[in-house]
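Title: Comparing notes on inverse folding

I've been comparing how different people in this forum approach sequence design from structure. To keep things fair, I'm posting one structure and asking everyone to reply with a full sequence. Here's the target:
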C-alpha cells in the first residue's frame, strides 16, 4: 500500500492546509529525516485529522514541530520502558511521535534503520500498558487502522464508513 491506496480509501481534501514547505529545514530543526510516505501524505492531505479524532502532526508548521518536540520530550522520560517493549536496538533513534488521538494515545515511528522502513508504534494513554508495534509506512498503517485491522488500538470501538474522513485543520 502507498499514498495512492490511502487517497483511494479516504479522499484527500480538495484544498489541503499547510501542504507545502521546506522539508530540509523541518528535518534539520527536528533532528531526523522524515519518511518519504509521510512527506507525500502531508503534500496531499496537509494539516488535519482523521475521523475527528486522529491528529497527524505536520512538521512543515511551527505548531506541528512544537507538538513533535513536546511529545518527544515526554517519551524521552519513558524511553527505557517504551523502547525496550517496542524492541528498539541500541543504534536506533528512538520513538518519534507523528500523531495522537482523542483517547490520549500517541502514534510514533520506531526509528530503527532507514526511515522508509520504520514501523508504527502506538503508545497507549496509560503508558504502563503494552506497546503495540505494527508494520509501516504511515500511509499503509492508516488504511489498515481505519479498516479496523487493529482492534486493540481502537479500544473496541471500530470505525464505520462514515468515520473514514479527513478534515483539514490548521494548528
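Reply #1:
Here's my take.
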Amino acid at each position: 500500500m502507498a499514498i495512492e491506496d490511502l487517497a483511494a480509501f479516504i479522499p484527500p481534501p480538495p484544498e489541503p492546509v499547510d501542504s507545502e514547505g521546506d522539508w530540509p529545514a523541518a528535518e534539520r530543526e527536528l533532528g531526523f529525516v522524515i519518511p518519504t510516505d509521510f512527506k507525500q501524505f502531508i503534500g496531499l492531505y496537509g494539516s488535519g485529522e482523521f475521523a475527528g479524532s486522529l491528529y497527524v502532526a505536520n512538521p512543515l508548521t511551527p505548531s506541528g514541530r512544537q507538538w513533535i518536540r513536546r511529545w518527544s520530550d515526554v517519551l524521552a522520560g519513558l524511553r527505557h520502558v517504551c523502547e525496550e517493549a517496542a524492541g528498539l536496538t541500541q543504534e536506533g533513534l528512538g520513538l518519534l511521535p507523528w500523531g495522537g488521538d482523542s483517547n490520549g494515545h500517541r502514534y510514533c515511528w520506531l526509528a530503527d534503520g532507514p526511515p522508509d522502513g520504520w514501523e508504527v508504534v502506538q503508545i497507549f494513554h496509560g503508558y504502563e500498558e503494552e506497546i503495540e508495534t505494527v508494520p509501516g509506512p504511515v500511509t499503509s498503517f492508516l488504511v489498515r487502522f481505519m479498516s479496523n485491522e487493529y482492534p486493540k488500538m481502537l479500544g473496541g470501538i471500530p470505525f464505520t464508513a462514515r468515520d473514514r474522513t479527513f478534515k483539514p485543520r490548521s494548528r
